[in-house]
Every structure is written in C-alpha cells, then in structure tokens.
Amino acid sequence: MSRRHSALLAVFLLSGLSTWAGIAGASAAPEPTTVLESPPIVAPASVIELLAESSDDATADVDWPAIIDARLAALAGEGRSEPVGSRDHRLDASVRAALHGLGARARVAVEIRDLERDAVLVDLGADRTLNPASNQKLVTAIAAVELLGADYRFQTMVLRAGDRLILRGEGDPDLHVADLHALAAAVVARGALDGVTRIVIDDTAFDSRTLGPGFRSDGPGDSYIAPSGALAIEYATVEITVRPGRFGRAAQVDIEPGGAAIELHNRATTRSGSLSVTTRAGDDGRTIVEVDGSISGGHAPIRVRRRVADPGLLAASTFAELLAAQTGRAALPVVRESVPPGSQEWGAEPIAVHQSAPLCAVLGSALRYSNNFTAEQVLRTLGWRASGRAGSWDDGVATLERFAAAVSPSEAGEQQFVNGSGLSRDGRLSPRFINDVVALVERPSSAAQVLLASFAKAGGEGTLRGRVPVAGDRVLAKTGTYAGASTLSGVVSNREGRRLGFSILINGGDLERNRAAQDRVVAALLR
To answer: How many domains does the chain have?
Structure first.
C-alpha cells in the first residue's frame, strides 16, 4: 500500500476516518512545462473521456463568481418538476418490514425514487428533516463538481518575490510530502534559491478560521476533526509511532511529518501499562505532541494519527527541510507576513506549480472514507470561488444554499447546512432533498454522473466494506454516523437495471439495529 493511501486509511480507521505536477519556469523566456504524472485514475473509460473533454482549467485567469452564477442559473433553468407519486405497494411493504422493530426512540425518514422516471416509489416521511451526519458529504461533493467542474484541480505554487520564496496553497485536500518534494526539486533545478532569505506561508485563499462549525477545539487531537487551511499536507495530521525501548527507559517516538513545526514531549516509559498520545497548539503555531504512560517491552509499534495546530506552518516547514536536504544548506526560516492576494503587489514570479488530481477523484476520500477534512476543504473552496473572498464556512454554506434552491426549490428552505462534512449536531436534511441532489447523476455526461466513479460500493473499500457485500457496484452509497444519527443514501441498480435513488435517515435508537435495518432496505431494493 502506498504511503498516501495508508495515511488516508489511518485517518479513517484510527479516528473514526494521483496527482500530477506542472513546473513553470521563472525566467523571462520560460522553459517548456515539465509534467510529472501520477498513476492514472481508476475509472471507467467513459469517465476518462468526459474528463478529457472538460473545458475547465484551474490555471486559467477566469471569473469564478460569474462562472458559478451561470452554472447555478443553468441548474435552476432545467425546470425540474416535482417527482411523480408512483407508489410501489410491494416495495413499500418490504421497506416497512425491513424497518420494523427499530423502537420508539428511532426517528425515521425514507424515500425511494426511480431516477429514470423521477417517480417516488416509497415515501415514509420523506420531507422530514433529520441530522444527515456524513450524508451531508454527498450534497457537498455533488454541488462542488457541478459548480467547479469534475476536472477542477487545486493548485499549490512556489513563487519568488525579491528575497522571499512564497509557498502558496489554494485548498488542496490531497497534498502530501511527496508533492512538496517534487516542488522542492523543481525549485533547486531552476536555481531559484540564490539570494533567498526566508520562506513565506501564503494560505490567504482561505480566511484565518481553521476549525469549522461543529468541530471541537478540545480533546486529544482526533484526526477526524483536523483543521482546515488553504495550505495543508497529509490531511492536516501527523502520524505518531511509539515503540518500546529498553525496560524502564523512555519509549521511542517517531513523528511524520516532523521537523521544526512539531515539538515532542515524550514522558512515556517502557513497562506494562497504557499509552496516551495527544496533540495541542503550542507557541507560534507549533504542534505539541505529548506522549504519556507506558508501552510494554516487545509490544508492536503503536501508530496514532493526530491533528496539527497550524496546517500552513507544517507544510511550509516541511518544504523548507526538503529544500535543505536537496541543497545541503541549512533550512530557511519560515515566516508569516502580510501577503497580498495572490502575491501580486510583490511582483511575485511563479517558479513551480503542483496540480491535484481532478476534483471528482479527490472527492473519493470524502465519499469512500468519509474524510471530514476533504469535505471542509472543498466547501471553503466553493465559498472562495463563488464569492471572490477568502474561503470561509459562511460563504461555503451560502453557496450550498444557492445550489439547494437551484436543484430542489420546494425543499431548499427546510434544509439546514452547517459545514461540508456533516460533523455537527445541528445539520438537517430530508430524504426528498437528498434524492433531488442524487438525481443529478441521471443527467448524461453531467459532472454528477462522473462523480459516481468515486462513490463507495457495497463490500468495497471504505465505509461500505462490510455492508451488503454481495451487491458490489450495484450499490453506490454514502454512510453517516454521528451523535445518534445513522444514515445511508445513494444509488441502487435493481435486477431490472433501473437506477433507484434512496435515502434512509435514522436518528436515535440502537446504532447496530439501525444499520441492519438500512441494509435490509437496500437488499429489498436489489430484488
């Protein structure tokens, strides 16, 4: 398993959790762009063709607010009518039987819809709004590809302005140490370090808030509540590995990524007992890693992933150390300065640029592994592109509200968006609204249809691994579990080949019983 995918799996498993780079010359007569390609995206040929035909170009100087306004107007102009009531009495009885016995504390809302005919087959309180938990990610993801484009790419740039080397992020949720290594190699190859005295963090594409609504600032530093920032690596987390030392002596601790942005307080010893690994904010944005307790001699290494305090500082410090390793010089100091938007006022000249995989592929971590960090990065990017202001949760939520009004005008006013991931006790969505959004996948060659390749499939990787495994890619769905909510929404292909949109929201009651009931409903749809 690659380092990138193992990190993502760790974020999902330990805490409840493809790129190519273009290198542009900095000289007056720039050299031809060098492209470093990652392994190809695993997707059906039709998806690759659609991406190849995409006219979206994240590097172009485009008027994003105008583009998003036009796309919202186009969605609203498609003139969707209310879905036709066409109750399937046999299926209705099967769904009711599957949900029987959930108990009085369970609040349930369900809609099953034939997407091709836009016909509601089962309606059990479908307009009732409940906490969607991570089913919110479906809405965020589909809104993002529809408004930004399935082939939208996040950029991370290195620029030179006088004696400053600027590392600028634009919200890439899938930036890794290996990508910074490639950028550092490009900078060294171009001889762009002569006269540079410092590295400046530019994460001004987003505003200064890092923890979204519903995200707690206390606790041990769980990676599923990692901070968001325009410049971040490894999902704004570090992996902490603890190994036993000699009996009675200090335990051994490794941190990746490490370096100047991380301060380790290791008080753990090698003896029988339990271990505590936490992170908290220290001085100047550094992340304090505290390791306490004990680990038995001979114990296998214990790996824990924890969030960092300042994503931009970790990324820039890691970049500085990668440059130092490639040049043999001391690491350049990393600073925060008042950076003009895009660094234009400094006359900054681009040296190298890394571009992410297409948005539809990047969203796989949110849809398959329920990665909250990815969803929040994408929401803030929506807010940034739609408003022209530094990306914020307020503008991101406002964009979701506009999207809801365009695709589901009769339901939009009753929905309550809080953040992009659904990690909140206050979010409220209805099955009818979710199906209105999911129905966009039926539009031929649409961005939403392309996104289907990034959905989790039953029995496959991610959160559907143990759910209705025999169904395979006949079930493409998103799970949700948080604060008493258990939800499952997506698309089923029945035995006749018809595509059914389904949304099953349950709040309260017994979690395992709720999940089993959801699986029984899906099994009924497959027949």
So the answer is: 3
Element at 362 (helix H, strand E): helix 359-362
| Distance, CA of 478 to CA of 457 (rounded, Å) | 9
Query: How many angstroms separate the CA atoms of 471 and 488, rounded?
Result: 15
In the block, tokens 């599957």 appear at 98
Q: Quick one: which of 367, 393, 459, 411 has its CA closest to 139?
A: 367
Q: Which domain holds residue 344?
A: 3-43+153-211+312-358
- φ and ψ at residue 210, rounded to 5 degrees: -115, -25
206 and 164 inside one domain? yes
Pull the structure tokens for residue 399. Answer: 């964009």
End-of-domain residue from the set 310, 332, 348: 310
User: CA-to-CA distance for 248 and 270, rounded, in angstroms?
Assistant: 5
Question: CA–CA separation, 223 vs 208, rounded Å?
Answer: 20
* Helices and strands: H and E segment counts in the chain: 14, 21
Question: Which amino acid is it at 198?
Answer: R
Give this prediction's pTM. 0.89
Element (H, E) at 321: helix 311-327
Span 182-222, pLDDT tens digits: 999 999 999 999 999 999 999 999 999 999 999 999 999 99
Contact between 375 and 137 (Cβ < 8 Å): yes
Q: Which two tokens stand for residue 188?
A: 């060294």
For 455, other C-beta atoms within 10 Å of its C-beta total 24
In 117-196, at which residue ranges do the beta strands (DSSP E only) sit?
119-124, 155-161, 164-169
Q: What is the pLDDT of residues 285-335, one digit of tens each?
A: 999 999 999 999 999 999 999 999 999 999 999 999 999 999 999 999 999
Q: Is the pLDDT of residue 30 over 90?
A: no
61, part of any domain: no
CA–CA distance from 268 to each of 122, 258, 358, 381 (Å)? Answer: 56, 18, 43, 40
Centroid of chain to Cα 125: 30
Identify whether residues 197 and 345 lie together within a single domain.
Answer: yes
